[in-house]
Amino acid sequence: MRISRSVTVVACLCALSQLGLAESLDVFATERTVAQTATQPIHSVPGACESSPVPARLTLEDMIERVLCHDPQARLNWANAKAQAANVGVRQSAYLPRLNASSGITTGRNDTNYEQREEYSNRGHKRQLDHRLALSWVLFDFGQRDAALRNARQLLVAANANQDEQLQQTFILAAQLYYDTLAAQNSQIAAAQVAALAAENLKAASAKHDAGAAALSDQLQAQAAYSEAALNEVRSNGALVSAKGFIALRMGLAPQTPLELAGSLTRRPNTRFVKGIDELLEEAKQDHPSLVAAKARLNAAKAAIDESKAEGHPTLSFVANASDMQLNQSMAFNGDSRTRDNSIGLQLNIPLFEGFGRTYQVRSAQARLEAREAEVIDVEQRISIDLWRNYQTLITETRSLERTAEWVEQSNQALEVVQGRYRAGVGSMIELLNALTAYATAEQQHINGLNSWQMARLKLAASLGRLGFWAL
């Protein structure tokens, strides 16, 4: 019974591996091949995405980390990358032998009755124990496994790059939402300031009218200007509440969650960091994740052609079998017996005719290769176009930022002069209202310019494929 016991032990071990151990082991360490990107430090830190109280003052970094934790697209691409990493492990497992074990038991009875000759009638029982062990190991296959493994690894590179690209898109959307909220916050402050100035103008116009030094029209115009400024203040307050609600929803919180942003739109940010466009284009062609993914899919398509061709070639395998069959039965059926069978050898599989299916599989793989080549060219062109557009946008926004800053200073000075003239009795209400409108417009344009400049800066970094926490 040595063979029987050994086969039974092997069968039990295989069953245990199938039930539990195989699901928990990562023999080929495929999980390590899932990329840890610069935009995703949270996935490499255990417990980073666990729920925790919102900080009293929410920074941009904290907000982006929370958004990435609750972004379904980021989770989807992360899962796809892990699935492709597991597929690499499947391809690597093809180099290892296959060991299968089986064990069975059957029992039965047989009754034979002859009505004419009862002496020939008999009854008996039968029980059969059958244990088998089979080993198969592919030794040579004309590069089929190598091509399949190269295909899987290149698709993993593409999955990691797609994950990085999606994270960068989520990153820039979260940053844009944060900067939009800062802009709404600054607009609310500016609107409140303009409303306060309008209230001062109304107070001055009312005092002059009561003293008989100004016409009623001045007071009415000041009253209308104050009403307009108060309306703009209400709208700016609503826009700020709405923007904060969007941030809370993206972080997986209730929209009415109170939030206080820690950052601010710098009045005069540093704008001396942009490189030449030629250098930027060269960097984008090396590092952009969409181009990395396209090139990886191209290499995978080349490997798929080799795999399709190799599948039509012979394979040489080492095979071994061991079996132990024990039969217990009545003497009426020749009594007990036991059969042991052990074999070892080489097996050659030669595909002779497959109905021309292999030819069309190769043609299909070649057509997909042509599509991937066109995809690489298209991605390179799109990256260049986006980079050029974002580069020019940043240059324009940088220059516009300087002009709007000067506009705010000049309009503020003009407003102070006109206010002094009006209080001194030498200026008109129309002149004062025009100066206040010009200041409010300049302040809002500068706020919009600051927001646009920040987004242009991040979009340029995204065009390079290098958007991360360092860009903040």
Structural class: alpha+beta
How can the largest sheet be summarized? Answer: 4 strands, antiparallel
Spans of at least 5 consecutive residues with low confidence: 1-17, 37-47
- Say what the CATH topology of the largest domain is: Outer membrane efflux proteins (OEP)
The proportion of strand residues reads 5-15%
Radius of gyration: 39 Å
Number of E strands: 4
Describe the fold and architecture:
With 472 residues, the chain is of the alpha+beta class. It has 2 domains: 28-96 and 142-313 and 357-471, Outer membrane efflux proteins (OEP), CATH 1.20.1600; 99-140 and 315-350, Outer membrane efflux proteins (OEP) (Single Sheet), CATH 2.20.200. The protein is 62% helix and 13% strand. The chain has 9 helices and 4 strands; from the N terminus they run αααββααααββαα. The protein has a 4-stranded antiparallel sheet, with helices on one face. A hairpin with a 7-residue loop joins β3 and β4. It starts with a helix and ends in a 9-residue tail after the last helix. Residues 1-17 and 37-47 have low confidence and may be disordered.
Primary descriptors:
Outer membrane efflux proteins (OEP); elongated; 2 domains; 4 strands; 62% helix; disordered N terminus; 472 residues; alpha+beta
Question: Outline of this structure?
Answer:
The protein has helices at 2-24, 60-69, 72-93, 144-210, 216-250, 277-287, 289-311, 357-424, 429-463, and strands spanning 98-112, 122-140, 315-329, 337-349. It is of the alpha+beta class and 472 residues long.
